[in-house]
Design a protein that fits this description.
single chain, alpha+beta, Jelly Rolls, Arc Repressor Mutant, subunit A, 11 helices
């Protein structure tokens, strides 16, 4: 494993210009060796980040899943997701990123509900619209003397976020068409994302939702095909995998970070879910 990393590196994409917002278009014919190494290094972004691939091909690994992205596709990356570029050639990509402080709360909630997502192939007219908006955003970045400089940047990036989110929502089931089972399951997953490191018991989630444990399990199983305990375990083990593969934290420290003071229990759980023990998983997935 190259270097020492107490935690998973965070790429300052949203804050690369010092304002928590970034809008740019990048053309890469050939990347220098050092830049290739940086792109291939697993990392998180510091904001909610979107990439529209206009030209070229990119192979992206997101939380141990490989995606080959071709023109003209869009992909959204949540700040929690660990990713790296494993291959690319002759790329032109529109990028925009915004941190939690500047993104509109209603968009943030929608994005939390969407995560994770897959790349989506876009129509020509949508690609042209996004490309034009990115160009406009880049022009606004140059107007640093304007009295409303930062609000203009914020509104410009939020417009791009809204457009991309709308595109993804078209693929999702409308909220008014969700069954009672799906509504409860969604509420449970929202709670789980915020509490998985501190709460592992289905009873705690049922209590927060003011429903019984059997009914919570019935809803979640009906909506997803899996039990509440399965989802809790999967979320914890995903974070454990991220830390094992992409940080140098000791395995016992990772267990404690994820809320397991009983290391042997954590090790057994990880082995059951991942199919190999934590040390074997780390050795297989060394960066």
């Amino acid at each position: 494993m190259s270097g020492k990393r107490a935690s998973i590196p965070v790429n300052p994409m949203a804050n690369q210009f010092g304002v928590g917002i970034a809008i740019e278009k990048v053309v890469i014919k050939k990347m220098a060796h050092k830049e290739q190494e940086e792109a291939a290094r697993p990392h998180r972004e510091d904001g909610h980040s979107f990439f529209l691939l206009e030209k070229g091909t990119v192979t992206l690994e997101i939380d141990f899943q490989q995606y080959t992205i071709k023109p003209s596709s869009i992909i959204y990356l949540h700040p929690n997701q660990v990713h790296r570029i494993t291959a690319f050639e002759n790329v032109t990509v529109c990028c925009w990123s915004i941190n939690n402080e500047h993104i509109r709360p209603e968009y943030l909630k929608l994005l939390e509900d969407l995560t994770p997502v897959r790349p989506l192939l876009l129509k020509k007219e949508t690609v042209e619209l996004i490309s034009n908006l990115v160009t406009l955003g880049m022009q606004l970045f140059e107007r640093k003397d304007d009295k409303l400089y930062h609000p203009m940047l914020k509104d410009s990036c939020n417009t791009l976020v809204a457009l991309a989110t709308s595109i993804y929502l078209e693929q999702a089931k409308p909220a008014h068409k969700l069954s009672r089972f799906e509504i409860v399951s969604k509420s449970f997953r929202d709670l789980l994302e915020r509490n998985y490191t501190i709460e592992k018991r289905p009873a705690a989630y049922a209590r927060q939702l003011n429903i019984s444990i059997p009914y919570l399990n019935e809803c979640v199983r009906h909506a997803t095909g899996f039990s509440v305990s399965h989802h809790i375990q999967q979320r914890v083990i995903l974070e454990a995998k991220r830390l094992l593969a992409h940080s140098d934290k000791a395995i016992k420290e990772i267990a404690t970070t994820l809320g397991y003071d009983d290391y042997p229990y954590f090790s057994r759980l990880f082995t059951k879910v991942a199919g190999k023990n934590p040390a074997a998983f780390r050795n297989k997935n060394l960066d």
